[in-house]
Amino acid sequence: MELTFLFVEWLGKPAWMWLGFLGIVIALLTFDLGVLHRDNREIEVKESLLLSSLYISLGLAFGGLVWWQLGPEPAMNYVTGFVVEKTLALDNVFVIALIFSFFAVPRLYQHRVLFWGILGVIVLRAIMIGVGATLVAQFSWLLYIFAAFLIVTGIKMLVMKDAEPDLANNPLIRFMRRRLNVTDEHYGEKFFIRKAHPDTGKMTLFITPLFMALVLVEVADVIFAVDSVPAIFAITTDPFIVYTSNIFAILGLRALYFALAAMIHRFRYLKPALAIVLIFIGSKVFVADLLGLEKFPAALSLGLTFAIIATGVVWSLVKSRTEIERVA
């Protein structure tokens, strides 16, 4: 049997590397849904932290494979992208928690929404990254646009306070309620339900609040991808590194959600740290040019990124603990 197709290059890497990565992702999702969460149940904080540790370990282990196959610089770029994407995902957790609260999604079924949401993210990110990689390859000056966008975004995050999303007046929710048959009641794990229409009495297909929550989770990811995709392209333009670091970070988000949703208030100073990271990542594109470097050193980029985020995490935990002790 001919296996030459495995060595055909696609987006700069042989097909076997892409197929191997997709095989790992499919195996993890199958294990998650088919073994760990075959039945709907609530996920406790302890289990969430254990699963998160597993996903983070697997993500870093994949970075070791990247080092083995492609070398130290791609591996350090992968880990930098993984850390940045994982940190950006914290904002996503806050929004997802608001969506679940707004639609009163029972904890029993939140994992189901997140699982199907992750599948949608894998496809959507592939499309966005594929388009981005093609455009950057054709128009290299787009990197400077991405870099400038990151700097502006980081500055806005530092100086502007976030307003809580007004889901009651969200145009997408209003559109679904106006144009589709929507039921206000939950029907277990079902996204769709057939029941008698209140006006005609005919059996009609309705969407449930669980499906509306899923749609908003997918849209939220597209919005957050506007930050994360330019950020990773400012780190590296290798589509394989860009996509794998994004997906491994997102795979663990579902597991981490249940722990973070319970203690997101303790990471108050992480957002300013993330803003500084975005400014740094955007600035290093211009700094490399000013210093006459082909690329900003990957090791320095990873070290500074990790140091900034770690400082934000530690400072948040210390300050929140001090405030809790003061109140007690």
From TrEMBL:
Pfam families: TerC. It is a multi-pass membrane protein. It comes from the Bacteria. The keyword Transmembrane helix applies. GO terms for cellular component: membrane. Keywords: Membrane, Transmembrane, Transmembrane helix. The chain crosses the membrane at residues 15-36, 48-68, 88-106, 113-135, 141-159, 203-225, 240-260, 272-292, 298-318. It is found in: Membrane. The keyword Plastid does not apply. Belongs to the TerC family. NCBIfam families: R_switched_Alx. This is Tellurite resistance protein TerC. It comes from Allorhizobium borbori.
